[in-house]
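Hey, I was hoping to borrow your eyes for a little while. No rush at all, and the record is pasted right below.
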Amino acid sequence: MGASLIAGLLSGLVTLTYSVSYAAFIFSEGDLEARLDLGMGIALMSAVVVAAVVALRSSFVFTIAGPDSNASAILQLMAAAVVTQGLSPESTLSTVVVMLALSSISVGASLWIIGLLKQGYLVRFIPYPVLGGFLAGTGWLIATGSFKVMTGYSLDLKDPAGFLVVFGEWEVIRLWAPGAVLAVVMLIVLKRFKHFMILPSMIVGGVVLSHLGFMAFGLDNAEATMMGFLYEPFSKEPNVFIWKEVNFGAVAWGQIFSQLGNLFAMTGVVVITILLNSTGIELFAEEDADLNRELSAAGMANIASGLFGGMIGYQSISRSLLNFKAGGKQRMAGFVAAGFCVLFFLGASPILTTIPKLVLGGLLLYLGLGLLREWVVEGFTKLSRVDYLLVVSILLVIAFAGFLYGVGFGLGISMVLFVLSYSKINTIKHAITIESHRSSFARPIGHQHILNEKGQSTLILNLQGYQFFGTANSLLDQIKAKIEEGQKATPLTNVILDFRLVSGIDSSVTVSFQKILQIAQKSQMKVYLTDMTSDTRNYFDEAELLDEQGKDGYIPFATLDYCVQHCEDAYLKSEGLDIMPVDPKIETELEEMFLPKEKVPRFLKYLTEIRIEKGKKVCAQGDEADSMFFISSGLTTAQLDIPGGPTIRLISLGPGTVFGEMGLYSDANRSADVVTDMDSVLYELTSANLETMQKEDPEMAMELHRFVIRLLSERVAQTNKKVQHLN
């Protein structure tokens, strides 16, 4: 408990200093500057409420939260925009206070809803360089804002001449130079040394050294205040009841609504910052963060802060790690930090006016330069040239045109980057033929030889991804290339477009699919579409591109497996072969499989004829595998019944095929159900009869063993061929 108390006090000191800096930053324009006391009250109220609520709700017990630089940079822009409207001092103040509170409530509600719906992952879709551009732009706003806090002058890149004149005046230099030195020293020291006491020590040290400097030059507090180093004594004490300072009748609601664009941009920035900070805390603590819980916690904290008149605040990675390193391993540390700000709040005026502007401005400059160093300086070596150029471009847009324009530019660029990147993805995952990719309908050996010869005439293209205007030309070019490549090897008769891995499709690719169909029809090829979702099927229906006969459109099939079976059947029929013989003879089938004609009778005496009606189970999954079956007539299917899901066809077997041999030889249980699809005649070879055969007719048993070995070898070869073509 003692360690958490000390850690909480240190975290409270840093939170207090940051909060005061942000208040000075936001209330640095026009009429607002005279009411810095109220700005301090708003910032401290936010520090107290946000720190307490997040400490209670965060997934990390050591999280410290409060006002933050990224949100403060945008709030300062919003406040400055109100100041420039020429309103009365009372109207300006009331409008800004209400705007800060409503911003906190609306952003808080957004965070809470995103967390509640568990949609925090969506922010990860923002491209990394776009995120870097936003943060670099925020760093610029904070850095230039620090100049205003220290000197009272604004830096405007739109007026370079005025910028240089103001920047170079001695009266201005003596105000900003000490703060700039402090910021640079903080950058160097905190980059090199990681001890948790360094930041609090430098803040306190900056205050002490400033007053020692005043004493060295013979300045008392009044003279230092007159020269601009200290804030003038507040006319009022910071009020805990912030709403008492607001005249709601004087609020310019139109000015608040005019800032909706910045408010939306800030919501995105806050979400990004919370997720980045939480991820950083997660990595440091080596614990998993519940990102949606962090968003919800920040959401509730900001709603509460806004209701009390506070501003936006959320989880801080620097203050949280400071708390953790100082020993704050309990939630109490967060409440202690909040309590420290409360005590300071109650007697703030005399103490706040002794904090030099150069310390507050130097702290802001340190934060701004830190972001610029990370993304502009270090980013030069860490990012690709294109990504780095994007970061700098967004930064320049924010610096010269404004944050909202920078956000719009960044989002526009991110969409363009997405389309360009996605269009480079290969829309064809695999290009194979049915010579290597057979259906689940088992064929007699003679039929398999025919399909080995004919199979390369059917090209299967497994499409993938979302098909839209960004992939349309790529899809067309790739399919044309695959068809041309296939035609060179073997004239194609069929092309199958498999949509199983396609996540969606839109109307922008209509022309591409029309051209594909035209190319196929000119070459007298049939084109099949398989595994379409209902939405994809509707797209082709509405475009009038489907034709069950294949004369004027694509031929749809429910699955690739059944489509391949259809093409196989067509090849076999073209050779005059019967797929399902009307009156097959087991003797003929055994002869075609593996036995010389004169040996068939010797083999048949070990088999038992079984007649099974349609829809009956031959064997069930889990049964003891004590026999194998030769199919004389009919059709059976091996299938898996998935609880709560569909029944999966593993393989269909017709006349002249066998099943059950693996279980018989391996003593394993049946791996699937085998069901008859029509009245069937089977011949069963039991394990007992196999043992008898091996004793009475070893030669016949050897013929069977060779047949089974050849059968399994061909299946393995077929599987290897399929895998080879998929790589």
In short: The chain is about 60% helix and 10% strand. The chain has three domains: 2-371, 428-574, 586-726. The domain at 428-574 is CATH 3.30.750.24 (Transcription Regulator spoIIAA). The longest strand covers residues 494-505.
